[in-house]
Amino acid sequence: MYGEASVNLYYTIMSIYGWWLWAKKSPDKSPELKITQSTSKEWIQQLLFFLFFYLLLFFSLTWLKKEFAPEAIPWADAFASASAYTGMWLMARKKVESWYWWIITDIASVPLYFTKGYVFTGFQFLILTILAMAGLQSWKLKSQYSKLPLQ
User: Fold this and answer.
1) CA separation (Å) from 60 to 88, 111, 117, 118?
2) CA–CA separation, 20 vs 31, rounded Å?
3) N- to C-terminal Cα distance for the chain?
4) What burial class does residue 23 get, using C-beta atoms within 10 Å of its C-beta: 0-12 exposed, 13-18 middle, 19+ buried?
5) Which of 57, 91, 99, 146 is a Cys-bridge partner for 78, taking CB atoms 3.0 to 4.6 Å apart?
6) What is the four-CA torsion angle of 138, 143, 149, 151, rounded to 10 degrees?
7) Distance between CA 16 and CA 31 in Å, rounded?
8) Residue % of the chain over a pLDDT of 90
9) Tell me, what DSSP letter sits at residue 116?
10) Rounded to two decimals, what is the model's pTM?
């Protein structure tokens, strides 16, 4: 439960950050932040961001498992959480790739929660996978429209 609480704290902070970014307007009153696809450099940043949080969470959970979190599966919990952290960070920045990270998170979470006996939550992540795939398609289209020159 400590892990879930930390994820929700992170989501809250990133939601406020994302809301601030999404609400910014340019001088012509249009949204300043547009849905875009990541560059190669940004992909490397995403992978490093994921790797940092994966390692941090893996080693933390491995250490905490002995005394505080016996139900933890360090490699799986760290993977699902680090991919969710990455997805949320990119969603705040309106990056199409956020949806890939959400899909990874959801797919990893289905067996993780079933293994822990949280069947309802496992099914919830199955539904979230479908929704993330729809979000990906929508944002891909919107990112292409944002590249079109204004007439």
Assistant:
1) 21, 22, 23, 22
2) 11
3) 52
4) exposed
5) 57
6) 30
7) 17
8) 76
9) T
10) 0.88
Task: Give the number of other Cβ atoms within 10 Å of residue 88's Cβ.
Answer: 22
Distance CA 5, CA 27 (A): 39
Number of CB atoms found within 10 A of residue 126's CB: 15
> What single-letter DSSP state applies at residue 148?
S
Torsion region of 108: left, alpha or beta (phi above 0 gives left; psi -120 to 50 gives alpha):
alpha
Give me the pLDDT at residue 150, please.
47
Around Cβ 65, how many Cβ atoms within 10 Å? 15
- Tell me the two tokens of residue 110: 């289905």
> Residue 31 in 3-state DSSP?
strand
Residue with token string 């007439």: 151
In this predicted model, what pLDDT tens digit does every residue of 51-84 receive, in sequence order?
999 999 999 999 988 888 788 899 999 999 999 9
| pLDDT exceeds cutoff 60 at 91 | yes
Spell out the domain ranges in the chain: 37-147
